[in-house]
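Retro notes (design track)

What went well: tokenization of the new backbones is finally stable.
What didn't: we kept losing track of which sequence belonged to which structure.
Fix going forward: every design gets posted as structure first, then sequence, in one message. First example under the new rule, 401 residues:
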């Protein structure tokens, strides 16, 4: 009986052992099948996602870039030295087509690779706008964007739209407003990034009304949707340095997924800060004897240069633009009247990083100039008296007096 019990016990142990081995093998097989299934799913999913992403990027890329060429047709441009018209037209077409032949007549300032990027751009939204006078209410400028399939297409359209020489006769020009309007039009047209190409002499910029100023502030502070990416490059004509071409690279904020397209990649840039502290003059100032006025403001960290602009209120005829490397400037030969003076701190790439403005009333010669004039007159009187006395003494010594 004891041997039978032991025999059954061994049999039970053997059965349990076989069952455990079978269970272990089944679990091992199950784990391998699970791993294989996961790997297969990952491979299939990755392939599908990469294919979908490539297809989406291909379908979206052609509608995300835009180029607007702004041509200043103010009368001040037409008064420049002869030859500006042909050079300006040649340079605009060459820039858009990707040619470098035109650059021999121009001095570059900034990263010229931005110019190459425009020439290498594929299909895009495109517009050419001669600008000068603008509407006082929105829309300030009529910017009509169209599809352009290649750089040659953009160059041909530019040559077709480029205005005749006689068209450069507008009394006023609104450069800042034209740039802001173009950026607004591009963003409204679902453009995520692009370029502004501005052809101008940059000598005059008319004063803005409240609604116009609000639009420029939105653009310059980066809250318009498209903003300056800090890659501005400029070219000045050798024979006529007042004629200038500026190219501004624009980037936009991510809008999220739109029409199956992934959001655009944006670069985190500090917005323009309207925080320059203007020191002097205040709201009014008396000019010195030579009509000069000294302007001072606090320095801005990271600023490479400062642009001082003076524009007579309600007129574009009397305007000054001065670039300095220090936070002060002495401007001479100023007339009396109401002016708006604006200081813009710019980085090494000409990106505006801070700005501020103030309305200023300039009156006649101030006490400083009057004092100088009085001293000069007194000195002249003393010299004249001394000469007269010397002459009298000589006459007496010679017996003639």
């Amino acid at each position: 009986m004891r041997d039978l019990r032991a025999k059954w016990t061994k049999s039970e142990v053997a059965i349990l052992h076989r069952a455990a081995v079978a269970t272990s093998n089944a679990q091992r097989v199950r784990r391998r099948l699970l791993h294989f299934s996961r790997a297969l799913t990952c491979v299939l999913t990755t392939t599908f996602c990469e294919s979908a992403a490539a297809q989406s990027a291909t379908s979206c890329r052609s509608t995300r870039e835009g180029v607007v060429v702004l041509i200043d047709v103010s009368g001040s441009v037409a008064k420049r030295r002869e030859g500006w018209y042909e050079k300006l037209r040649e340079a605009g077409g060459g820039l858009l087509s990707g040619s470098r032949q035109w650059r021999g007549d121009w001095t570059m300032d900034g990263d010229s690779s931005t110019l190459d990027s425009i020439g290498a751009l594929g299909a895009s939204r495109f517009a050419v706008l001669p600008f000068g006078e603008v509407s006082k209410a929105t829309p300030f400028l009529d910017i009509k964007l169209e599809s352009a399939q290649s750089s040659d297409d953009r160059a041909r359209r530019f040559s077709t739209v480029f205005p005749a020489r006689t068209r450069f006769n507008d009394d006023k020009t609104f450069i800042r407003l034209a740039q802001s309007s173009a950026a607004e039009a591009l963003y409204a047209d679902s453009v995520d990034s692009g370029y502004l190409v501005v052809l101008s002499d940059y000598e005059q910029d008319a004063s803005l009304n409240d609604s116009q100023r609000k639009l420029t502030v939105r653009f310059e502070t980066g809250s318009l949707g498209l903003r300056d990416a800090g890659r501005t490059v400029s070219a000045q004509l050798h024979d006529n340095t007042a004629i200038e071409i500026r190219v501004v690279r624009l980037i936009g904020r991510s809008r999220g997924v739109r029409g199956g397209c992934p959001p655009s990649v944006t670069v985190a840039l500090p917005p323009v800060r309207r925080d320059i502290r203007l020191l002097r003059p205040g709201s009014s100032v008396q000019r010195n004897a030579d009509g000069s006025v000294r302007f001072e403001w606090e320095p801005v960290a990271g600023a490479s240069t400062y642009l001082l602009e003076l524009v007579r209120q309600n007129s574009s005829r009397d305007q000054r633009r001065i670039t300095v490397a220090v936070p002060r400037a002495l401007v001479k030969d100023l007339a009396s009247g109401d002016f708006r003076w604006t200081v813009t701190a710019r980085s090494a790439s000409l990106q505006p990083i801070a700005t501020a403005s103030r309305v200023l009333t300039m009156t006649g010669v101030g006490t400083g100039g009057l004092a100088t004039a009085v001293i000069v007159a007194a000195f002249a009187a003393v010299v004249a008296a001394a000469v007269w006395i010397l002459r009298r003494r000589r006459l007496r010594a010679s017996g003639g007096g």
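Added context from the reviewer: Confidence is low (pLDDT under 50) at residues 45-54, 56-62, 254-273, 366-371.
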